[in-house]
Amino acid sequence: MSGVDLLTVGEALVSLRSSGPLLAGGPLSMHLAGAESNVAIGLARLGHRAAWVGRVGGDELGEFVLRQLRAEGVDTTAVRRDPARPTGLMFLERRTADVSRVQYHRAGSAGSALTVDDLRGPLAAGPRMVHLTGITPALSDSAREAAGWAARAAADAGIPVCLDVNHRAGLWSREAARATLFPLAGYASVVVASTDELDLVAQAGADEAAAAAGLLRRGVRTVLVKLGADGVRAYTAEGVRHVAAVPVTAVDTVGAGDAFTAGYLSGHLDGLDLVDRLGRAVTLGAFAVAGHGDWEGLPRRDELSLITGSAAGTTLR
Amino acid sequence: MSGVDLLTVGEALVSLRSSGPLLAGGPLSMHLAGAESNVAIGLARLGHRAAWVGRVGGDELGEFVLRQLRAEGVDTTAVRRDPARPTGLMFLERRTADVSRVQYHRAGSAGSALTVDDLRGPLAAGPRMVHLTGITPALSDSAREAAGWAARAAADAGIPVCLDVNHRAGLWSREAARATLFPLAGYASVVVASTDELDLVAQAGADEAAAAAGLLRRGVRTVLVKLGADGVRAYTAEGVRHVAAVPVTAVDTVGAGDAFTAGYLSGHLDGLDLVDRLGRAVTLGAFAVAGHGDWEGLPRRDELSLITGSAAGTTLR
Amino acid sequence: MSGVDLLTVGEALVSLRSSGPLLAGGPLSMHLAGAESNVAIGLARLGHRAAWVGRVGGDELGEFVLRQLRAEGVDTTAVRRDPARPTGLMFLERRTADVSRVQYHRAGSAGSALTVDDLRGPLAAGPRMVHLTGITPALSDSAREAAGWAARAAADAGIPVCLDVNHRAGLWSREAARATLFPLAGYASVVVASTDELDLVAQAGADEAAAAAGLLRRGVRTVLVKLGADGVRAYTAEGVRHVAAVPVTAVDTVGAGDAFTAGYLSGHLDGLDLVDRLGRAVTLGAFAVAGHGDWEGLPRRDELSLITGSAAGTTLR
Amino acid sequence: MSGVDLLTVGEALVSLRSSGPLLAGGPLSMHLAGAESNVAIGLARLGHRAAWVGRVGGDELGEFVLRQLRAEGVDTTAVRRDPARPTGLMFLERRTADVSRVQYHRAGSAGSALTVDDLRGPLAAGPRMVHLTGITPALSDSAREAAGWAARAAADAGIPVCLDVNHRAGLWSREAARATLFPLAGYASVVVASTDELDLVAQAGADEAAAAAGLLRRGVRTVLVKLGADGVRAYTAEGVRHVAAVPVTAVDTVGAGDAFTAGYLSGHLDGLDLVDRLGRAVTLGAFAVAGHGDWEGLPRRDELSLITGSAAGTTLR
Amino acid sequence: MSGVDLLTVGEALVSLRSSGPLLAGGPLSMHLAGAESNVAIGLARLGHRAAWVGRVGGDELGEFVLRQLRAEGVDTTAVRRDPARPTGLMFLERRTADVSRVQYHRAGSAGSALTVDDLRGPLAAGPRMVHLTGITPALSDSAREAAGWAARAAADAGIPVCLDVNHRAGLWSREAARATLFPLAGYASVVVASTDELDLVAQAGADEAAAAAGLLRRGVRTVLVKLGADGVRAYTAEGVRHVAAVPVTAVDTVGAGDAFTAGYLSGHLDGLDLVDRLGRAVTLGAFAVAGHGDWEGLPRRDELSLITGSAAGTTLR
Amino acid sequence: MSGVDLLTVGEALVSLRSSGPLLAGGPLSMHLAGAESNVAIGLARLGHRAAWVGRVGGDELGEFVLRQLRAEGVDTTAVRRDPARPTGLMFLERRTADVSRVQYHRAGSAGSALTVDDLRGPLAAGPRMVHLTGITPALSDSAREAAGWAARAAADAGIPVCLDVNHRAGLWSREAARATLFPLAGYASVVVASTDELDLVAQAGADEAAAAAGLLRRGVRTVLVKLGADGVRAYTAEGVRHVAAVPVTAVDTVGAGDAFTAGYLSGHLDGLDLVDRLGRAVTLGAFAVAGHGDWEGLPRRDELSLITGSAAGTTLR
């Protein structure tokens, strides 16, 4: 696992998708899901060396998860199989054209049994960056401990940490999330949040600008506020920048945030300046929403130019 | 069948749907269809006790119809199996993205053989409301007689009747429809019509307001004019109210009118005031158009809040 | 329509197939069905000029039927569209692995409205042979009259007639069938029947040999008794011949009899002797049962050698 | 819930079936599963009044389970929704043409939280018979207690109990199973077991005949030993009877044992003698293996004659 | 092949469509593709006698192509089977909601082996019009020669030629295309081009109006500039006309240009004036984009009125 | 690529499978195909380190091939992308239940452009074994040269070579095959052939035993004669051994030979004796025929015991 550009840590799940109401009992399609593995795939598709670490069960669903990650060229050598626990599951139900619902079956999952020991090796191998999300600490006590350890250890080793807040209301309360994520953010170099997540890593009552300023004061170098169809605002010591989203036909918004993060980190690894990093971020976000699946539509490097913001209905012959 | 909130009377069909031109011969999906059974399902999903009465064949398609109704919790104890006639069929062809075509195979069907006798028992059981549509009288002489009898008998018993005009040009002419439906409307407490159906239950030449006024004069308490994407206008003794449609991504408009009616009647059964009844009506209409199928997307009571008019692309985790 | 080798007369239907119990409501696939059109396709695939005549509705299902027949190179120029009647339908339900059930929706269909006038033109064009089945006379009075007329007119014109008894218990009783088919067989040159159908065209109480002898005495040249997996016995003035079936993995026996007849008639048109005609008949039967669908698996002339009776699990690279 | 013929108690699950290796990630189909609900459906299809009691989650999977049971006419009025626990899941993977594998996700499920209190009402309503399996006691302490209570309470009330041993090696060891099931069998009127399950309810070291004799001595009236393709042996006070299986093309053996039990109990409820009860049992077993799904192929009463043991490749027109 | 209204010349391919990224390996659907065969189908559906000529392989893909053309009523009697070469293939990948990609496998295909001799017969039969595209000359030397010969021979015989520029960047450069297509356009009566194709058939540096004027000077009677969602501009000796597109929900823009051309030519064959020809052209274009597939959604004559520009969400019952 | 247990060399293709006649145009599924990659996957699933080397196009089909190989854990680091040539294709058509047909589209493919230079690196890395088939030399002159070089170079380096004759009649004649393969076999340590392939690597006119003896005399250590359902005969210096096939329900025989070879080589790498190597070979063959796809059903090491030869209809719970 030496020479990895990005190490991501978290739980990878099997997502069972229905195209309509779940109670009707239609066919389900199996997908790899997980915010951190989405980011790893986004980077691997762009040619970076990305690794994912976490636990999967000793079951066939675990085999599925590993097959998908390997197919995408993500380094899985540090993944641990946990024969005593099942691989986590989620149902993603398209309830209406506009509303999707998630039901998690991840209590007691292999992924939630992550420990500090699982992470020592991969971190010691010296990745260029580490990516964490606010989901992992919500999974279990040991996972929270592991995520916290990883952030601190990376920061101590001078490895920049990217933290995506990614609040999951189905897993914990905002209060519990804030208690854990606020201190965690202090170890991050990059913090990614949507507008309504920002207060989970900021002082109480702060508006967006104040929250971002507070993070910058605590040592965060870049605060990225995801605005959905309105793009992104980035706060750094140099000030604030807004970059608009790339207009595309949206067919599936799941995974857009992870794609955005992957694009930003790719730009960082490539040494791009802030505006170009943000440009890559919104481009990857556009690929994600213009394709079905959480990560299946993400681009290779040679495909980045396919989405130009004016390409509706194009056929390339 | 005692204690039923709503009794609906009509023909339930098997709808065979193609996702493209029928002549191409692609796969067909089977669905339960029928304006009245749609309304019954809409109410049952919201927790009301709804019954449907009509005839289905002794064939496997009849079994399918009954299985679907039972699955939805609709009371089918009064349904009659007619071993001598087939269950009615329709083909619903999506000819273009915007144009669907129906072909009925219901001539001589079990459903069209409905008689007054089929309805005596269910009506005697004393439902709180009765729902009829202008489709049933178009099916056969005996069905017309049965629908007329049901309207009169309910009115005589003080049970409010809801009549949805639902003109089917493939079944009869506007002239024939008017000759039957105009008098029928006189027994109704609620009349539901789209703009171009109103003259089938009103004096010749009347505009919308005059037509509604005429119906109110004849004893109708509420006239609901469905305006599609523009919502609904309701005429009562208190005047006229307009309620806008709830904006959603429309994927299938079939069944929207029945959903609307179900929502209104649910509000009525819950004792809501007019504006809240209309609000529930447009909410159910929104669920119907934002989901595939005639009724498959209708909400349970705990789901009513899922559609808020601003929820495009939401994933609830 | 000049120069046709074989004219087939009957009703072509749309067959809606389920792969499991129909009441469960799974997807249906659309297929062209009809004993006579099956025979026409069997001959057209082998390079003969085959025509089918009958009525289809003015509906999209009629378009489907015509598209399929044209795709297979069957001459449809004499087909009549009947705008007042729907195209006939059938449901073919695979109830268990071994038991399929048919439900017809052909009462009042366009196909059942066949008349003598529909057949005058095609018969006047002078086909080399005419094929009829015992299904057509069961459809309606006019269809029975038309089938009888066609048999007599062809016989009068010296055109050999092939009659496949094809008793359909769902359409008429054995008594009614016998009353019509017994005299009809007297005009035939070739009579095809399964063992339990033979008494419908023979004197009461006759065993197989006696029944065949009776038919030969009445002018039939060849009596083919289909034995299913046991092959065929052919009775002619020269005596009786048995040819075994070609062993294959059977996946769908529907259409096997029609394929058999098509193979026999193809051999006849090619001038083969009896044994070779029978050989082609059982070969086509084998193709039919080794493939899904009523006729979809039938061979082109260059494919006849693919089934050799010992080819289980062969991959030709 | 008054007037029920058979009360079944257990856990109903959502079964996610793959048609090939699960790790390949192909589509999954959703099915209702559960030995006890299978039996309830088998009886309901035959026209008996059958109820199922157990817990399902407050989730959409629970809605699916209830929709399926209601569609089949099973009484679900005593089912309890458990909002705090998910509905149980299982994956059923067709690993090879001959080998299927099950993975359970039922630890902590709603179904496993069954309690004695859940059963008091349904049992007090006085069903004619009660059906239990050896799966329920394996689910949790409270479920084991509930199953034991139900057996004793029914026996005390003079309601015959049917116990299907149904050992699930994935849930508990043979030792644990024996410790619970041996005493439980003492309350049963009918015990159903496969050959290798008999020792779980018999004295150690007994062969089949001795094990059956032991059960009969302990008060069991009928011991049914399922022999798969070899049929069944029934032990009663009158001696031993063997009935052969009905030969059909087997496409899916899952659920065959439950179908067998349902057939036997139906015969019991109909007052048939032993041989006819066994005949119905093997007929239902044949329907189950000749169709896909655990229960989807089970017959209505009018369909019992479809399987005759000589019907391979029959099409009923 | 006598009495043909329109003869089209080109390569018909098998198009393998994926609904998502091709690298994911999902199912592919098979379609007939080819600009010229699309035009032939468009005319045949409207009741014109249309023929297509070209080569297909002796393989099963060639059978597929012929089946589709025959199904649509296109005259295929002049098609040549080329046993030594495969039928051409293309992959049509929906990469994102807005971007499709084509990969051709037509190098060395049967279709690319077209020769002048293949065309002599069909042209001698005297069609009323001939349709060519700029794709055929890009396929091979012999195909280029054949296309040129056809244009000249038709022009010499007084048969109007329609040339659709249809530049395929995957087959040749703009320079190579211009060298061939510029002279070819001189033989055409109708030239169809999109805005960015016009310079391939015009003098260098000319704007749209100047390019059209140049073509008119060289003898072209009508120059049609396709503007996509903006409709069409037609240049003739009488001046320039713009006709707007018919607004529909666009689901698949592939084939829209061919549909447009077919509509225009149909109007020409019907003797309509320019505005009505353009009206039919944009109507067929609307059908094409409002349906899936290259040609599958094209209308019969009785369906032309289905698209009216205001019919969103209509269900015809 | 260091430390590889088995290096396989050849062409990996995209196989497009139809479940029925190809001319009907049903959906196609995409699969990775290729005898050598099948063997590599078979070994990787069993935990060996397997590498595949060859060329794939720069196209999306090439991406698909690489994704599949990576998913299976096959080392692809030496694979070369050839931007100028397409990835090879084949159609695998299930023509009847018993007969499948292959059509190759691999002329001019990237895979056929294999050169000696492509193999120098991987061979220099020192794999423990090398696997070649008789397909590669049939693809092109350069591929023939490469295969020959690899066999000689491996033999020179003391690396055992396994040659599977795998005659493809669609690619070359038996004479051409023999001219190349006879000398090639001289470098092999293991030769695998079906009965009718043996004469391509043996002296003219020799029977099986003589052919095997001849190969042994030329230095081959083990000659494996595949007998399909009859198992295998192995010839070594110690004599001849026959091992029966493992009886399973056969659903897809494609890939069985490659599975067999993979099993044998796995046993070899594990140091098993001949009989156990053959046992693993027939076990893997059984997995292949009992599952759909060329390699998709192959077992992991922990699954080897699932197929025991008596497991028909087993469900493991």
Structural topology:
Six copies of one chain form a homohexamer.
Chain A: E1 6-9, E2 13-18, E3 28-33, H1 35-45, E4 50-53, E5 55-57, H2 60-71, E6 80-82, E7 89-94, E8 99-105, H3 116-124, E9 129-133, H4 141-156, E10 161-164, H5 174-185, E11 190-194, H6 208-217, E12 222-226, E13 232-236, E14 239-243, H7 256-269, H8 274-289, E15 314-316
Describe this entry's structure for a reader:
Six copies of one chain form a homohexamer. With 317 residues, chain A is α/β, with parallel strands linked by helices. Chain A has a single domain, classed as Ribokinase (UDP-N-acetylmuramoyl-L-alanine:D-glutamate ligase, 3-Layer(aba) Sandwich). Helix content of chain A is 32%, strand content 22%. Chain A has eight helices and 15 strands. The first copy, chain A, has an eight-stranded mixed β-sheet with strand order 4-1-9-10-11-12-13-14, with helices on both faces. The first copy, chain A, has a four-stranded mixed β-sheet with strand order 3-2-7-8. The N and C termini of chain A lie far apart (40 Å). The model of chain A has no long low-confidence stretch (mean pLDDT 96). The interface between A and D is medium-sized, with 28 and 28 residues. Chains A, B, C, D, E, F: Residues 23-298 form the Carbohydrate kinase PfkB domain. Chains A, B, C, D, E, F: GO terms for molecular function: ATP binding; kinase activity. Chains A, B, C, D, E, F: Belongs to the carbohydrate kinase PfkB family. Chains A, B, C, D, E, F: Pfam families: PfkB.
